[in-house]
Write a structure and sequence with these properties.
heterodimer, A: alpha+beta, Alpha-Beta Plaits, 2 domains, 4-stranded antiparallel β-sheet, B: alpha/beta, Rossmann fold, 6-stranded mixed β-sheet
Chain lengths: ~290, ~220
């Protein structure tokens, strides 16, 4: 292990300008990859609680036996994305209305018959909620015989879920493109280094070197290029994070919610090393004797 | 130790070797001779599998070419020390490192490598040039460095392709002494040369090639 690493380090030093350029290019690629990951992380974070703020109000028909209501409540509770279900009787609804009107409560004084409906207030969880399941759930509620009307901010919710899905797709596509770009940078750098040392490799083959012995310094080079790029990207992302933290002042209160995941500092060099080794392995191809 | 059975090697339209058959026993010193283009280098390249035969079979140190898997080639080559005609020394590595690489390839520890490399350098009288770079050496010194690299791994077979070709008489005599010394330790030596003076009256076996044909198997 020590000898191939020594050869790799020596080769990186001998071709230092080309390698530095490759490390910087990989660094930029990984920085963007990290930044894209940072966007995804924060979009997830910011939108995670959104469904919880929305509730489904299910108005029930009059004169429904309590057992039927309980059956619906039980079936709703079984859904994984339902946080809570609260039953509000006609009487409770009227009390709540009076409470809400407070000083204008006289408006409802003198009404003989309670005009309000009993209802179920369903709160949702942010996790594991998708549009398909939500639509199916709303449709099943509307089919219930005891249900008069279902009110839910579907449009807002659908738009929100759509935005989240699009952001995720965008992030994955951009991430993959940058991964391919980084692999290509490592591929071309190692390919060039390999050609420069072709004569040396040929002599090694004649002296009885195994494919592993020939490959290992180049794989180490790819790994070190990726590691170098990853460290640069981590530093870049930490600086961006610091900059955003400084922006988190009262003039931009929403910035307080923007977070740079700490794992990125380790993750980017790891991704860099993996992509570096992959690029090098492709560059070396099949070694023939 | 080395067996060629009806070996033919063709480059495009030129037949370098034609149905060549011979056997070299363990511990023999065999000269391969013939004019330029006779097929001497091709024959040697077939021994360390730098070239593959188009027909026939080759057996080297117990390895049979026909049943040899590609991943076994490096291990076969470790049994064969080669002194190349063009030296094949790495110009950016010291003489020490050029020789040490043979042992690094085999996974030797640096301490043992050091011992063995200096021993090989002593054998070719080049210990004082261990830290020199090949381009700073004379032709004879480069040739001796190549021999040291070929023998450091203690191969069972030592192959030399015109090792005295570019040397003056004194240097050539020195190189021949080294080969005889290596042979005296039991190594099988295959020595290609077009210089008849090197094997005349030596009592060693001589394989004579002409236009790819083995035309004589005689005693020099």
């Amino acid at each position: 292990m020590r000898y191939p690493l020594k050869v790799a380090l020596k080769s990186l030093w001998l071709e230092r300008w080309i390698n530095l350029l490759s490390i910087l290019s990989i660094g930029v690629g990984l920085f963007i990859l990290g930044f894209v990951g940072f966007i995804l992380y924060n979009v997830e974070g910011l939108t995670k609680g959104a469904p919880e703020r929305l509730t489904i109000t299910v108005f029930l028909k009059d004169e429904i036996p309590r057992t039927d209501i309980q059956r619906v409540i039980d079936s709703v509770k079984k859904r994984a994305f339902v946080k809570s279900v609260r039953f509000i009787s006609k009487e409770e609804a009227l009390e709540e209305l009076k409470e809400a009107l407070r000083e204008s409560a006289y408006l409802v004084e003198g009404i003989d018959e309670n005009p309000l409906f009993a209802s179920l207030v369903i709160r949702l969880k942010g996790d594991g909620l998708n549009k398909k399941d939500l639509d199916a759930f709303l449709a099943s509620l509307r089919k219930e015989k005891i249900v008069d009307e279902v009110i839910f901010g579907e449009e807002v919710m659908n738009k929100l879920l759509g935005v989240i899905t699009n952001v995720k797709i965008g992030v994955v596509v951009v991430g993959l493109l940058f991964c391919v770009a980084i692999v290509f940078i490592c591929y071309s750098t190692v390919k060039m280094l390999f050609y420069r040392r072709k004569e040396e490799v040929e002599i090694y083959k004649l002296l009885g070197a195994t494919k592993g012995f020939i490959r290992s310094p180049f794989l180490f080079e790819g790994l070190l290029l990726g590691l170098g790029g990853g460290i640069i990207a981590s530093i870049g992302n930490l600086l961006v994070s610091k900059f955003l933290e400084e922006l988190s002042n009262p003039t931009l209160p929403f910035m307080r919610y923007v977070v740079m995941p700490e794992e990125i500092v380790i993750l980017l060099p790891l991704i860099g090393m993996t992509l570096g080794v992959v690029g090098s392995a492709i560059a070396l191809g099949k070694i023939r004797y | 130790m080395i067996r060629f059975e009806g070996v033919t090697k063709v480059y495009d339209t030129i037949t370098a070797l034609r149905h060549v058959t011979f056997t070299i026993e363990k511990g023999e010193f065999v000269y391969i001779t013939g004019p330029s283009g006779a097929g001497k280098s091709t024959l040697l390249k077939l021994i360390y599998l730098a070239e593959r035969p188009d027909s026939g079979n080759i057996s080297i140190a117990g390895w049979d070419y026909k049943s040899l898997k590609e991943k076994a080639v490096p291990y076969l080559r470790r049994n064969v020390g080669v002194v190349f005609q063009d030296f094949k020394l790495l110009p950016n590595k010291t003489v020490y490192d050029n020789i040490a690489i043979t042992l690094r390839i085999r996974g030797f520890k640096e301490r043992e490598i050091k011992e063995r490399v200096y021993e090989a350098l002593k054998m070719v009288n080049l210990r004082h040039k261990a830290d020199a770079y090949p381009p700073t050496l004379s032709g004879g010194e480069q040739q001796r460095a190549t021999i040291a690299r070929a023998i450091v791994g203690e191969p069972t077979i030592l192959i030399a392709d015109e090792p005295t070709g570019n040397l003056d008489a004194d240097n050539a005599a020195g190189i021949m002494r080294i080969f005889r010394n290596i042979h005296s330790k039991g190594t099988t030596v295959v020595f290609a040369t077009h210089n008849r003076e090197l094997f005349r009256n030596t009592g060693m076996r001589v394989l004579r090639l002409d236009s790819g044909n083995l035309v004589a198997d005689e005693i020099g």
